[in-house]
Amino acid sequence: MTDDDPPSDGDSGELRTVRRRPFALDLTRPLGTARGDIDRREGFVVTVDPAGNGSEAVGVGEATPLPGWTESYEDCGAELDAVGHGDGSDALRAESTPAARHGVSLALADAAAREAGRSLAERLANEADVGASPADAVPVNATVGDGSAAETAAAAAQAVDEGFDCLKLKVGARDVEGDVERVRAVREAVGDAVSLRADANGAWDREAARCALDALAAFDLAYVEQPLPVDDLDGLAALRGEARGGAVPVAADESVAARGIDAVLEADAADAVVLKPMALGGPDRALAAALRARSAGVDPVVTTTVDAVVARTAAVHVAAAIPEVSPCGLATGTLLDEDLAPDPCPIDDGRMAVPTGPGLAGGAFDDLRRE
Ligand SMILES: O=C(O)CCC(=O)c1ccccc1C(=O)O
Ligand SMILES: [Mg+2]
Question: What is its EC number (predicted)?
Answer without folding.
Answer: 4.2.1.113
